[in-house]
């Protein structure tokens, strides 16, 4: 038998945006329901040390931060359901969503916090060394590589931006690209080539991340990468302490295709200085709409915005109904 859950606020997804939206919605007595998705907590669940989230003097682990946010959301009254939304209908209010188990949710407002995922190279060794030198966020992890040598994989604006950012900490940054020219904007390329700390390796792909992983003898951590020149086929070992993969992100928005306005990359579009989508009462917060900052703190801020906007919207609708009556 299908269960039907009615709520003033349905939050799809979790992570910093979702949990913060839940906290604010619950404190506004909106009794929010969150369907957390298959990976509750999002990208922070695979982040080891977090040093840039306010309120913690010492580094904390990403999973711990997410556990605390979830507990806070539950403690103030959020109902969290461990399932995944697979269909939505925004054609009329209350809006309808269906989860993987076949349960139905009817919601006056919906806050979308499904996030985005970094694209990886797909190497087994790459995943083995995540948190041991391999990262997809220079802003998050660059600080841990002070005085060390790292490589950045990619050739677009993101890769160049990551490489330039890392020169603030690292002794040497090597950009590795599978082609012999970059896709990044010319002005970004000029800044990159002018930086004395940066070198480039062209026409090359990473075949394997090298080092000592957990459970192996020695101090865990990556020691380099095995490269392959795609033109000559020659393989070389490039020693480095870290590898930053910067080949893009994919927002988790397939569910909302043709139902919400998005940009060409699939990020949900919202009104300026707002989390409101093109559908009244439907909001998007965090990495699902943000391809610039992609930080836990900015996602949390947007979650707060979305909850406050949902609360204001509900009050406006209720006031309009009373006047109509």
Provide a brief overview of the structure.
The protein has 325 residues and is α/β, with parallel strands linked by helices. It is built from seven helices and 19 strands.
List the helices and strands and how they pair.
Elements: E1 4-12, H1 15-27, E2 33-35, E3 49-50, E4 60-61, H2 62-75, E5 79-81, E6 85-89, E7 95-99, E8 104-112, E9 116-118, H3 124-128, E10 134-135, H4 138-141, E11 149-153, H5 157-166, E12 172-176, H6 186-194, E13 198-201, E14 204-212, E15 221-229, E16 235-239, E17 242-245, E18 249-251, E19 282-284, H7 296-324
Parallel strand pairs: 1-2, 1-8, 2-5, 8-19, 10-17, 11-12, 11-17, 12-13
Antiparallel strand pairs: 3-4, 6-7, 7-8, 9-18, 14-15, 15-16
Helix pairs in contact: 1-2, 1-7, 5-6
Please provide a written account of the structure.
This protein has helices at 15-27, 62-75, 124-128, 138-141, 157-166, 186-194, 296-324; strands spanning 4-12, 33-35, 49-50, 60-61, 79-81, 85-89, 95-99, 104-112, 116-118, 134-135, 149-153, 172-176, 198-201, 204-212, 221-229, 235-239, 242-245, 249-251, 282-284. Strand 15 and strand 16 (235-239) form a beta hairpin. It starts with a strand and ends with a helix. It is built from seven helices and 19 strands. Helix 1 packs parallel to helix 2 (62-75).
């Amino acid at each position: 038998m299908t269960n039907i859950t009615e709520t003033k606020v349905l939050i799809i997804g979790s992570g910093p945006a979702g949990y913060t939206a839940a906290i604010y919605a619950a404190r506004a007595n909106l009794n929010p329901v969150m369907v957390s998705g298959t990976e509750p907590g999002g990208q922070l669940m695979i982040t080891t040390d977090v040093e840039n989230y306010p309120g913690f003097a010492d580094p904390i682990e990403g999973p711990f931060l997410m556990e605390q946010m979830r507990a806070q959301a539950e403690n103030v009254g959020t109902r969290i359901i461990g399932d995944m939304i697979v269909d939505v209908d925004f054609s009329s209010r209350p809006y309808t969503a269906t989860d993987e188990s076949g349960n139905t949710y009817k919601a006056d407002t919906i806050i979308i916090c499904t996030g985005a995922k970094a694209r990886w190279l797909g190497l087994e060794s790459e995943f083995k060394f995540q948190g041991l030198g391999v990262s997809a966020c220079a802003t998050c992890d660059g600080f841990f590589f002070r005085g060390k040598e790292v490589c950045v994989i990619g050739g677009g604006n993101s890769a160049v931006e990551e490489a330039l950012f890392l020169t603030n900490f690292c002794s040497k940054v090597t950009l590795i690209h599978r082609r012999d020219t970059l896709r990044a904007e010319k002005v970004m390329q000029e800044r990159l080539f002018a930086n004395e700390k940066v070198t480039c390796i062209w026409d090359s792909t990473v075949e394997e991340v090298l080092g000592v992983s957990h459970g192996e003898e020695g101090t865990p951590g990556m020691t380099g990468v095995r490269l392959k020149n795609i033109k000559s086929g020659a393989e070389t070992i490039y020693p480095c302490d870290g590898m930053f993969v910067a080949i893009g992100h994919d927002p988790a928005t397939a569910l909302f295709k043709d139902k919400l306005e998005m940009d060409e990359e699939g990020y949900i579009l919202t009104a300026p200085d707002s989390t409101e989508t093109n559908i009244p009462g439907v909001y998007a917060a965090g990495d699902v709409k943000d391809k610039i900052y992609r930080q836990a703190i900015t996602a949390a801020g947007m979650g707060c915005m979305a909850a406050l906007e949902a609360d204001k919207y509900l009050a406006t609708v209720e006031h309009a109904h009373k006047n109509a009556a």
